[in-house]
Each structure stands twice: as C-alpha cells, then as structure tokens.
C-alpha cells in the first residue's frame, strides 16, 4: 500500500501576479493560502494548469514553490507540478522543489510529444528518478495517449521511479475506475474535473484537485463529507450548485473569472497570463451580477 499523500479536497492553487501580470507577487501568496487553510483545504497543487506553470519562467516557478511551502508551513501536504516545459527544466524544478520541502512532484506529459505513451514514460522516468519524493502523473485528456488500456498504462508506468499516483483531468471515468480497481492501494488516484467531482468520488478517487476550489472550497468539502457519510442526495445537490457557478465562469473564461472572484473576495492575485484573458471592468460587473443571481456570495 502506497502512502497516499492526497486525500480530500485540494485547491489547484492560483499563482498571484502583480496587477499588470508581468511578475510574480510573492506577498500575495500567504493571504490566499491562509484563507484556503481557514476554509479547510486538505492540501495544495502548485504551478499546475490553474497555477499557470506553463506561462511562468523557471525562476518564477522556483520562487512560487519557495513562497507557497513557507506559507503552508507543513499544515497540509503540497505537490509541485514541474512539467509543461522541457524535460531538463522539469528535472531541475523537481530537484529544487524536493530540496525546498515539497511533499511530492508531478508532471504533465512532455510538451513536445503529446499523446505518446512511450515518450511520456521516458519523460516521467527522468523526473521520477531526479528525487526521492513520490512522483505523480498529471493526466490531461488532450495530451494523454487515448489508444491504450488501463492495463497497458500501468504496465508501462512500472518503468517510472517513485511513481505513486496521478491526477486525472479527463471525463473518461470508465478508464479512471479501471485505474482505481487495478492499482488498488498501490497508487494515490485523484480526480481533476471540478464539474464531475462527485463522479470521481463514486469511481473511487482518494482526493480531488481543482481550480474552483480556490473560490468555493466549502461546497466541495461538504460534498466530500456527505459522500463519505453515504448521503448521496445532499452531495448531488452540492455538485449541481457548484456546476451553476462553474457554468457561469465558463462564459467569461474560467481562469480570468476565478482570478477576478478572488479579487472581489479581497484576495488580489492579478490577471492571468496569455493564452488566458483577464476580465475587464464591464465583464467583472457582469460576472458579479450573474453570481449574485445564483445566490453565490463572493465574500
């Protein structure tokens, strides 16, 4: 049985930038982390998709790693995502994160060879071997090899040192459930899509990592508690409630909306970087109006 670092509800932590988006704003990290810990967050996933790792320079990613680890201060576990860059940089970032005190390392598929299991295994093997920390795959539907079975995937991943689990951002929950079933307690398996978080729980997820847990962690934490207590109807109601908010955010662009909402909550994190777009003043007013119409309070 693997030591399952990830359990419960983990925000995929937003990376705070300056107001013009040109630089990391490390002074904005601790207030965001403190707020989410106060809400009950069970862990953090750093510099992933929501954390805009792909849009950050290596030195910025190192600084975000240092600042977040200091802010969390070992209150909960923390996984640092080092991919979305060349393998050499990913290995450098993995070693840095491990030395800084990250509990585990994760990576997306190699940016230059998407949808290629053989290339992914080599990329993961190099990163996994770079430290003694547990290594997690950040599975994204668009870059995963869709031609394989769950059995083939797990067999191939035996070549990856320290492979301990994966974050599964994909709607193919048949494949997800097969991974859960085949891996048993050997792997820490985490669901990714916020809009089907409850489906991940039903399929056997140990934890969930998601973008909107930055702005509505309590909804998902309550959902998890209801599910674990066998109270499915209340959990379903909470998923529907969350999805109304998510659907509203999608109309504006999820990351831009998320960052705008954190600002409304008194937790400024700056704008997203390209290719994501920030919300202008008119859009922010419309977003707040639409959220108010749902009864969703941005506090």
Can you describe this structure?
It is a single chain. This protein has 299 residues and is an alpha/beta fold. It has one domain: Aldolase class I (TIM Barrel, Alpha-Beta Barrel), CATH 3.20.20. The chain is built from 11 helices and 8 strands. The chain has helices at 29-39, 58-72, 87-100, 117-128, 150-156, 173-183, 197-203, 217-228, 232-252, 254-264, 281-294; strands at 8-11, 44-46, 78-81, 104-107, 135-140, 163-169, 188-191, 207-210. The protein has an 8-stranded parallel beta sheet. Strand 6 (163-169), helix 6 (173-183) and strand 7 form a beta-alpha-beta unit. Helix 1 (29-39) crosses helix 2, helix 7 (197-203) packs parallel to helix 8 (217-228) and helix 9 packs antiparallel against helix 11. The longest helix has 21 residues, at 232-252. The protein is globular, with a radius of gyration of 18 Å. It starts with 7 loop residues before the first strand and ends in a 5-residue tail after the last helix.
Please give the structural blueprint.
Layout: E1 8-11, H1 29-39, E2 44-46, H2 58-72, E3 78-81, H3 87-100, E4 104-107, H4 117-128, E5 135-140, H5 150-156, E6 163-169, H6 173-183, E7 188-191, H7 197-203, E8 207-210, H8 217-228, H9 232-252, H10 254-264, H11 281-294
Parallel strand pairs: 1-8, 2-3, 3-4, 4-5, 5-6, 6-7, 7-8
Helix pairs in contact: 1-2, 2-3, 3-4, 7-8, 8-9, 9-10, 9-11
